[in-house]
Amino acid sequence: MITSGLQKRPAAVAYHLFWNAVDWVFPPTCGGCNRTGERWCEQCQKSTLLLAENLCERCGNPLPSDGHCPECDRQRPVFTALRSFCAYQGPARKAIHRLKYQRDLGMGEALAQVMSPWVASLQWPVDVVTSVPLSPARLKQRGYNQASMIALPLAWEMGVRFDSGLLHRARETSSQVGLSAAERIKNVDGAFYAQGNLRGKTVLVVDDVITTGATMNSCASALLTAGASVVFGLSFARALLADHQVEPDPIF
Fold first, then answer.
1. What pTM, to 2 d.p., does this model score?
2. 21 C-beta neighbours (distance < 10 Å), count
3. Residue ranges in 136-180 assigned as alpha helix (H)
4. pLDDT tens for each residue of 140-166
5. Which of 17, 32, 86, 109, CA to CA, is 20 to 30 A from 92?
6. What mean pLDDT value characterizes the chain?
């Protein structure tokens, strides 16, 4: 379960100090605007569109009013709730690109710091945190899982155990970029399996970006099949419906 601030501090503080030391030797630039001095500046935070009101109670998709979105009414996801900190646009999108494609690993810790108070406000009773896994080929190519770079420091901020080995890819999947919602669901159906002692556990799965929630739903299905009792999903950013047609992210 989420523990108190006194219990969560040592690992989170040590990790934060590590990146502060790195930044002292190699001065960082903001992931949103390239301003020198910090990884995520106050101006970029102020210009980031937060997703805090009128959300689908299940998948977290923005709505005109509270309730459930038509998609969740048609086919209810298996996760209990899915939430994203902000919209995948502007500085937030640039910061994710910096983490994902430019090997700025410290950006994961910076984004986790930004998210931490908001995550605490959700009051989800989490036992263990994990991340959406990359395929072995993509992991070998990139060298790290960008979702884990957010999930690890976030778990430490929460005072909860992080376990990167809970979820695995059962098979390779095509890129989700450019696929329709139905195609995304089909693409990731049965794509994951879970391992570990999950009986009765509440698991939080972290990703960098959510589009339709199909990947998160497939991860949740695998965890529930392995014995988890509840699965929550979380991401730093979410691609809004109107943004699904923007130019695709690079595929590498």
1. 0.86
2. 10
3. 136-142, 146-158
4. 999 999 999 999 999 999 999 999 999
5. 17
6. 86
